[in-house]
């Protein structure tokens, strides 16, 4: 997540531990939301 923040990505939801790993949500400049999660 810190790599994304250093490049100016807006973090909408901070990291959260889920059953399949840690996830967080980011927004692009147009307001689209993306959930970042590990590949299982």
TrEMBL record:
This is VOC family protein. Residues 5-35 form the Glyoxalase/fosfomycin resistance/dioxygenase domain. It comes from the Bacteria. InterPro entries: Glyas_Bleomycin-R_OHBP_Dase (IPR029068), Glyas_Fos-R_dOase_dom (IPR004360). Pfam families: Glyoxalase.
């Amino acid at each position: 997540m810190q790599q994304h923040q250093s490049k100016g990505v807006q973090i909408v939801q901070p990291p959260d531990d889920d059953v399949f790993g840690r996830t967080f949500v980011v927004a692009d400049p147009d307001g689209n939301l993306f959930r970042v999660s590990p590949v299982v």
